[in-house]
User: Fold this.
Amino acid sequence: MTRSPYTKWDLILRGLGFALVFALLAPVQALADQTVCPRPAAGSTVTPPPDLAAHDGKLNLHFNYYTAIDDAGRTLFCFVTDHGKQSPTLHVNPGDKIFLTVTNMVPDVPGAPAEVVSNGQDACGSATMTLSSVNVHFHGTNTAPVCHSDETIRTLINSGESFTYQIQIPKDEPPGLYWYHPHVHGTSSVAVDGGASGAIVVEGIEKVQPAVSGLPERVLVLRDQPLNPNVPVLTQSHPVTPPFWDASINYVPIVYPVDKPAVLKMHAGEKEFWRVTNSSANTVMDIQLTYDHVQQPLQIVALDGVPTGSHDGKQEGVIVTQHDILLPPAGRAEFMVTAPTAEVKNAMFSTLAIDSGPLGDSLPFRPFATIALTKDALGLPVMPKARKATDPERFAGLEKIKPSAQRHLYFSETFGHAVHGDAKLETGNEAHGRGALRVNFFITVKGDKPKLFDPNDPPAITTTQGAVEDWTIQNRAPEVHEFHIHQVHFLLLAVNGVPVPAEQRQLYDTFQVGYWDQVGPYPSIKVRMDFRGPTVGDFVYHCHILQHEDAGMMAKIRVLPKQ
Ligand SMILES: [Cu+2]
Assistant:
């Protein structure tokens, strides 16, 4: 198959369609308030997101959800507290409860398409999805998939409405980095690359990884954002294929071609604890830290919110040293780094180029920030002293359980007219009212018919609380896909049929499946799913490249309560 320009253009135009619709609203908002979703200038010093911490087991907060258009014409989205804190980092302990009220301040778009996603009793908030609907997913948290908790299939907060979440963080939640973002099917990509996301820290990692005790703690939220339409991306000095998306680091924009990376200030030779989330909608990253072009060791203590090496139940983490870390959209890595000495001339935090496959997005090498040494105070919090872990950690001992089921799923794409219920290319245009040529994105249980996600469909997989299952997920498409399941983490057992050695196995909530080169066997991952916990109900699994999820690559699982 050769690359067709229509495939990506179709998606880009769909994205632009949203941007243009919101652009119509922009002058009203921009005139009303120039400070909606404020973002630093390119080249700014990276500062930590504002922090909000739970007290006495509770974190009470109110978010207003806004949209704005920046000077370059990009559509922005943001969550802002009543005190003007944009996308704060939420700090909670295992067992704490988050009381979050969200008010949707994004204006309704008259005449825009709307879709009924609930019929009667099962509505959660509004029953009708519109272009300005929002909700919140608490990514990676092992919380309940029920209304007012981490439910994303039916929860809709429409323009002018308020809705309250009560998120009970389990007592056995692994300590580490999580994040929150909108998860309305069809608009999640524009909302997330508009910037509406923030970090969640479940405290206590120093109990499992005592090496981080006493280190300065730095939360880095990497995001993507629409390209600046005013910057010519193909120039004589930058003849490289431009990326599909620009990036940002703690909202400091990284505008391609990058002439002004952000600035990270550090103390010479000082060790720091970095907590990095790839909160992009669509951009895969492969992060590295280079000093005079030499990759530095990244001493990993947690991946996707779970301390590395902690899943055996002993509560003693293992440090994994790598020189780069592949972070799919939604992936997190927490690691220790040592700042450069004064002799280093060029210290840079960057992403390597990603080979996403012949149909994949262009993802070239890009710097995020240059490291600048300073003697001034950094204003970073310091990690607490280590205490011995006492509470058991969720998913412990998963490796030793005999799985009760084997399931086989696959990612696939077809190019043609939008179809519902059948992967055949049809001329019908009933699917979401679109009849134009487009890429259809599917995730399918082997043996079933490929089907675009529909919130009113029955679950593709039904299991029972207590089950432990091995799932093999293939990729039959010529671009990478990023497998994510809500509510539970999974243990990675094998990649492309090659077992992961026992001592290197980790828990993840998002993992990349390589692209199919159209000659060899389908790339795959094999993972162990853990449904032994309290989670029951309907929730989703999907590709975390959000344009793919918005275009259908998602399905439902139902966990029935134990009899
Ligand atoms: Cu995908």
Remarks:
- The helical segments are 5-32, 188-193, 205-208, 546-550.
- The chain has a mean pLDDT of 89.
- The radius of gyration is 22 Å.
- The first strand starts at residue 51 and ends at 53.
